[in-house]
Design brief:
Blueprint: H1 3-7, E1 12-15, H2 34-47, H3 65-73, H4 81-88, H5 92-98, H6 100-107, E2 116-119, E3 128-132, E4 138-142, E5 149-152, H7 153-170, H8 175-197, H9 201-206, E6 209-210, H10 211-218, H11 224-237, H12 242-249, E7 250-253, E8 256-259, E9 266-268, H13 269-272, H14 275-292, H15 298-305, E10 308-315, E11 326-332, E12 339-346, H16 353-356, H17 364-375, E13 384-390, E14 395-402, H18 417-438, H19 441-448, H20 453-481
Antiparallel strand pairs: 1-13, 2-5, 3-4, 4-6, 7-8, 9-10, 10-11, 11-12, 12-14, 13-14
């Protein structure tokens, strides 16, 4: 399919509906005592023993993993799907990153304590990182919420632990080192949840991992070379902002700034659409930006109104998200050296929905935004959502955030055991903090207990699931080799 023909289904010409989706009424909250909440956790432990989480055995009727990926591809931009497969083929860890739906289906058959939180849905090592808070502090937090939905807290912990196991194998760690790094991540979660259980509500809400405060603590955990590598990630993050993107991604054409074309990864929309459609498309963009503003706080709406729309391009992002419709929008403020880059990203149904039930929001973009605000210590000031009807007549949900705002990440595939141990503990703490904000932290801490029974069970699960991931990775390679699907590598 040509780029011009497919592009008609990518973005909007009119809004679907004149009002933001209404929120459903909130149910009454039962205010239990600390003792009652702790009893909930112990009752759950009696019904679902912590040791039961160790088991992973694929059910006889387990879905074909490649078929699940093919099913996702039906709602994505066809010409970009081979790039997704190609990126997943890069390594077993890269495959794991793109296999959130496969693991969600597998987790549905595992034991559940019955304690629900706002789950990330895709809590693997590469979905944590640093970014700038509205107060211009550099924070460490979860940074991907495309799959967020209320669900079992265990699912996030198991996906995080499995990602550690997969990355450890990928990096050639010994069995002993793998056991340690996975165990440290789970212990980090359990210890943090115990700490949050003893804190008052506001203290939990204000808890955050400030990078500048955390770096000195790493000196006791890492050698000088490893510490310097961590510091470089932080230094680089501070350079990744709209000005850096402006210099790298734009050029002046006929006196006006334009996003540079780099197909197929970055393609300006005026290269994808015929001239006859561009006028309607631009009207849709302007309409979207006006209506999306209503999902922001008043002061952020005022700030956004000081920028004007200049140019838009389609951009391929991530691994698992490749093929969903994603755009970068260049806006300018007081002059042509005052840029704001926004990322407008399609939000489809969470991979958890088929197994955990639908969430409360009709708009999938709102689901992502509200979940992010609930789980993150601080969120992008331009984080918002809206629904658009595309040029093909199909309504799609999108959310918006800044393209770059001091964003940085550590590459798990380059980590040594000592670094992964520290990093996994930090991810475990961060995930526990997110769950403590949305779920019953006292009940979860009571369920986990003070010993390492749960830790050891999750280590066993993660090791077994790493085996499963390797089998599924092999199935994808076989599907490509046999011509069942097409993959484009190196992009």
């Amino acid at each position: 399919m040509s780029q011009r023909k497919e592009a008609k289904g990518e973005a909007g010409s009119t809004r679907a509906g004149s009002k933001p989706p209404a929120r459903s009424s909130s149910p009454a909250v039962a205010h239990l005592t600390v003792e009652e909440r702790a009893a909930r956790g112990k009752e759950a432990r009696a019904s679902v023993p912590r040791s039961s989480h160790a088991a992973w055995e694929p059910p006889a009727d387990r879905s074909d993993p490649v078929a699940l990926l093919e099913g996702q591809a039906t709602t994505r931009v066809p010409e970009l799907v081979p790039i997704r497969y190609g990126r997943m083929l890069a390594s077993a860890f890269a495959f794991f990153r793109g296999a959130a739906l496969i693991m969600a289906a597998d987790l549905a058959s595992t034991p559940r304590s019955g304690l629900i939180v706002q789950a990330c849905g895709d809590a693997h090592l590469s979905n944590f990182g640093v970014f700038g808070s509205p107060e211009r502090e550099l924070l460490f937090d979860i940074n991907d919420f495309d799959e967020t939905l209320p669900g079992p807290w265990e699912w996030d912990v198991k996906r995080l632990a499995a990602s550690v196991a997969v990355a450890a194998r990928n990096n050639g760690f010994s069995d002993a080192a793998l056991t340690k790094v996975v165990g440290d991540a789970v212990a980090g979660y359990r210890g943090a949840m115990a700490g949050f259980a003893g804190m008052n509500n506001l203290a939990v809400w204000y808890a955050r991992a400030q990078v500048e405060e955390g770096l000195p603590r790493l000196r006791a955990m890492l050698d000088k070379r490893q510490l310097r590598a961590a510091e470089k990630v932080v230094e680089k993050a501070r350079t990744r902002d709209s000005m850096q993107a402006f210099a790298k991604l734009t050029q002046v054409v006929d006196g006006e700034r334009r996003i540079i074309s780099d197909p197929p990864l970055i393609v300006p929309m005026d290269e994808l659409l015929p001239p006859a459609d561009m006028s309607r498309f631009h009207e849709g963009v302007h309409s979207y930006l006006r209506t999306y503003r209503r999902s922001l706080l008043g002061d952020r709406r005022h700030l956004l109104e000081d920028f004007r729309f200049v140019h838009i391009a389609r951009k391929v992002v991530g691994v698992g998200s490749v093929g969903t419709r994603a755009y970068i929008v260049l806006m300018l403020g007081r002059d042509d050296q005052d840029p704001l880059f926004l990322q407008v990203k399609e939000a489809q149904a969470s991979v958890l929905e088929a197994f955990a039930g639908k969430g409360r929001y009709a708009n999938q973009g709102q689901r992502v935004v509200e979940g992010q605000r609930l789980m993150q210590a601080a969120s992008d000031i331009f984080l918002g959502w809206e629904r658009l009807t595309g040029l093909d007549g199909n309504p799609r949900d999108f959310y918006v955030r800044q393209l770059r705002d001091w964003k940085g990440a550590w590459d798990p595939e380059a980590m040594e055991p000592a670094v992964m141990s520290v990093y996994g503990q930090l991810c475990g703490w961060t995930l526990a903090r997110a769950h403590a904000r949305s779920g019953d932290r006292i009940a979860i801490a009571s369920y986990l207990g003070r010993g390492d029974v749960f830790d050891r069970a999750i280590v066993a699960f993660a090791d077994a699931y790493a085996d499963q991931n390797e089998r599924d990775y092999a199935a994808l390679k076989e599907a490509v080799a046999g011509g069942r699907i097409t993959a484009e590598t190196g992009l």
